[in-house]
Write a structure and sequence with these properties.
Two copies of one chain form a homodimer. The first copy, chain A, has 539 residues and is an alpha/beta fold. In chain A, strand 11 and strand 12 form a beta hairpin. The longest helix of chain A has 23 residues. Chain A folds into three domains: 263 residues, TIM Barrel; 89 residues, no CATH class; 137 residues, Alpha-isopropylmalate synthase LeuA, regulatory domain (Double Stranded RNA Binding Domain). In chain A, the strands form four sheets. Chain A has an eight-stranded parallel beta barrel, surrounded by eight helices. A three-stranded antiparallel beta sheet of chain A has the order 11-12-13, covered by helices on one side. The first copy, chain A, contains 20 helices and 16 strands. Chains A and B meet through helix 4, helix 9, helix 14, strand 11 and helix 18 of A and helix 4, helix 9, helix 14, strand 11 and helix 18 of B. Strand 11 of chain A pairs antiparallel with strand 11 of chain B.
Chain lengths: 539, 539
């Protein structure tokens, strides 16, 4: 059976950035673009060049991708030619192989919002698309408010699509801008367009989640004949978000009737990276991943009901609609279960710790993890802290040094030029091989700027560890994430520190306390201890 | 036009409690039941009496509700009569007017999981439902794995429904237990059942969100003829959750084709309580409300794109699918570097600052916002810090007090019992009305636990502000969020603080610095200054 080609268009970097509180830096955009390319989307919309400085910077530094890099903009304004529209020029100057231009297709918006005539709008669409084609670009026309426009005046909305089609647009994207159209109406509208002569393999669908149906609306359009699906990772986007590609991609690849009917650029191997990609984006945004997210959530394959959990052990298909491994996720069965321990042994083996099934430390480790997680710790990402915890219970953790005490001071006052300046100073006292060592550091970087109390503590801790000094000299702090979370009944601070060394190793550690400095120090200590363990093992 | 009656069935207290990490206490269940009743659902499923101690306790103390209180259980087991099944007896003994019993309708599960014959299962359904009817209860049959069963053997699945119908069940609930059925197939299956003679007004739909389509699946069933919709508040539930009633109810009440076709028990006034009800549940669960939630999320009507924000000012229907007030939510036009001057003036007007369009401060405010956002600030959520910034540029910000300097010390050492303990101490020096005031506080809470340096600073700052002391006495810190972000070329810390006061006001402020304590202090200062501005304006 030949499968029809279905195209995936990602707009995380453009529409996704419309999420309240989201503003990607250029390096973050590059990182996300690489992840999208690895996943196998066909188009990566990078932003609106000229409208936003980081968007322009991204196109200047854009990575080479297999996916078609696309710039977003709007159709030319009335009263000037496409060649002389400076807003459009900024978009085409980004030099991307494809350009997507938003334009009106709802007559009410044409006359009310733009204040131009129906014909002027058709001409703006036609001329803008023709201009892109003359520049050798792949042109996409994004028909704003398409479904509302079609309900109001089907003839005019269809004429807008026809104008862009005749001018040479590769794709006509049906945008449900307000997010209020029901999937059943989306499906019927796409059917009507195809009946009116618009080819389905030129139609794209762009939905929003305002009634929690963006995924269903996209699939209704595909079932009716549209062949391009737009969306964002984790459903980022304005208001309630865009159609969530993290849910749409596995549905299209794994579920019927789509899997047998369509071919996408997403390989089975790439799909296994989906959960990781979703978490990476949350990580960049410092968001707590949504446990209940379809396919990729930590709870997506968690079986709590007693009835379900016991049936799952007999036959996973009884309560799972797909195998969680296909999207890189995993099944969670209550800790008490036998499955908990075999899973733990597998994790320890991955760290090079082979543990016999009857080792009495195994249930103890599970208990400690459970108790710590109730306090606010999280070992999902902090693998190095988890390894230290397991080694402690297994009796495989030497006490390299002991921290006797520390003190850190943050001061802010006027300097002699009457400017407010701040300075942090840390004293750390450790006992190494029976010897007490006092170290003091301040938080100024090479430029003389204060980098804060955690920086000062980190430097003081690493200043003199006696015989271990050589081992930690090449350590550096790569990232530092702080979250307020629930520990028992009170809010506590969870700090995750990512470290790296000259041998190319990178590792993450966690600290939890109501005191943010203390939580940071705990994570720092774990980072140093893990490095000492690894270098000792390697020796 | 007569509208058909559509029934809403809530299972927050039963299936919702299958959410990972959720366990309601009896008083919490009572509070949720009252809220559901006020909202206007028709059925409240309270739990499984006998299976869970808090479920049994809830039925003992259940509040009087207009909604039909329903107990959940399972059909009798094979080899005993319904009258002699102790599991079923525990359910009926709860004395609820309605009882919903789950049973098998997928032949594979009958033979594989239960290990009984097809006929024995039909007899279990028939006898159990007849038993409920003989006790004078309204009977509901919950057909587990219905859609998978119907795909495998439509005849047998339909026979299970028929058996319960003939025995007197009021409702036959089609349950998509694994959450993997596409809405289009749900719709076709319901159509097939009605064509096979099962009345649509006896059919209910119970979906799960494993492909992010639980809402769409429920609506597909309604469009095909089902007349009872099951779900949970905020989409709680096992794995990815149940169909979200918080999204379904407004869609059924406000959106077409449903609003004109169906009548529910939810009044327009009750619907205005939807956002509050959703937040109340998050509050009970101590969860941060999902900003992007359909209808009720804080971002659901937030317009960030410059293009959208200026159109919204002219005509809200351009970018809103419903009036946010209908569900008790409100519109937000956040400040961000994508927003224009019209949106700025509107935002200022909402803060009580009427500014003429030609005021030269307007472009300056936009410039400062842009420059600050490049440094790592974010004003999307920190509206109070934005207001202070705007007032500063407009010359409308009094200097209430000046912070001359501060110093905070964090110390960790062994106490006399040889336990590691930490303590923070802060000194803040302010000048108020020409008078210098030194305040010192430590970070211990009432239980004697260290709450960290920001807590100590906050207390020291609020300790003595002279004439302003009375104004800030009722302020409290509600939430504290930290993220590492890019400020120019270096990583900086962004702190957002949510504050509230006794008058029910709540506001958010932001601080940015490489030094986390300093960033927190800046956000704290803004919080205090905003409160002083507001109380002065109010006077």
């Amino acid at each position: 059976m030949t499968r029809e080609r279905l195209y995936l268009y990602d707009t995380t970097l453009r529409d996704g950035q419309q999420t309240q509180g989201v503003q990607f830096s250029t390096p973050e955009k590059i990182r996300i673009a690489r992840a999208l390319d690895a996943l196998g989307v066909d188009y990566i919309e990078g932003g609106w060049p000229g409208a936003n400085p980081t968007d322009s910077a991204f196109f200047d530094e854009a990575p080479r991708t297999r996916a078609t890099l696309t710039a977003f903009g709007m159709t030319k304004r009335a009263g000037r030619s496409a060649e002389n529209d400076d807003v459009l020029a900024a978009v085409t100057n980004a030099g991307t192989p494809a350009v997507c231009l938003v334009g009106k297709s709802d007559l009410f918006h044409v006359t009310d919002a733009l204040g131009i005539t129906a014909d002027e709008n058709l001409e703006n669409i036609r001329a803008s698309v023709a201009h892109l084609v003359s520049l050798g670009r792949e042109a996409l026309f994004d028909a704003e408010h398409f479904f509302d426009g079609h309900a109001r005046d089907a003839g005019y909305a269809t004429a807008c699509l026809q104008a862009s089609l005749e001018a040479g647009a590769r794709w006509l994207v049906l945008c449900d801008t307000n997010g209020g159209t029901m999937p059943s109406r989306i499906g019927r509208t796409v059917e009507a367009l195809i009946a009116a002569g618009i080819p389905g393999d030129r139609l794209g669908i762009h939905t929003h989640n305002d009634t929690e149906q963006a995924v269903a609306g996209s699939l209704a359009a595909v079932e009716a004949g549209a062949r391009q699906v737009q969306g964002t990772l984790n459903g980022l986007g304005e208001r309630c978000g865009n159609a969530n590609l993290t849910a749409l991609i596995p549905t299209l690849c794994l579920k019927q009737p789509y899997a047998d009917a369509f071919e996408t650029n997403v390989t089975a191997q790439a799909l296994e990276g989906l959960t990781r990609t979703s978490r990476m984006l949350d990580d960049i945004l410092n968001r707590v991943p949504q446990k209940q997210a379809a396919y990729v959530g930590a709870s997506a394959f968690a079986h709590k009901a007693g009835l379900h959990a016991s049936a799952i052990v007999k036959n996973p298909t009884t309560y799972e609609h797909i195998d969680p491994g296909l999207v890189g996720n995993s099944r969670i069965i209550p800790m008490s279960n036998q499955a908990g321990q075999s899973n733990l042994r597998r994790r320890l083996a991955e760290m090079g710790l082979e543990v016999a099934p009857d080792n009495p430390a195994l249930p103890r480790i599970l208990e400690v993890v459970k108790a710590r997680e109730a306090e606010g710790y999280s070992y999902d990402t902090a693998q190095a802290s988890f390894e230290l915890l397991a080694r402690e219970e297994l009796g495989l953790l030497p006490e390299f040094f002991e921290v006797k005490r520390y003190r850190v001071t943050v001061e802010r006052r006027k300097n002699k030029y009457n400017q407010m300046v701040s300075l942090s100073e840390a004293v750390v006292v450790v006992k190494v091989d029976g010897e007490k060592k006092l170290s003091v550091s301040e938080s100024l970087d090479e430029a003389g700027s204060d980098r804060g109390p955690v920086n000062a503590l980190s430097k003081a801790l690493a200043k003199d560890l006696g015989p271990y000094q050589g081992v930690i000299d090449d350590m550096r702090l790569v990232d530092f994430k702080v979250r307020i979370t629930q520990g028992g009944t009170e809010a506590v601070t969870r700090v995750i520190i990512d470290s790296a060394d000259a041998q190319g190793r990178s590792w993450s550690t966690v600290g939890v306390s109501a005191n943010i400095v203390d939580a940071s120090f705990e994570a720092l200590l774990d980072a140093v201890r893990w490095k000492l363990v690894r270098d000792r093992e390697g020796a």
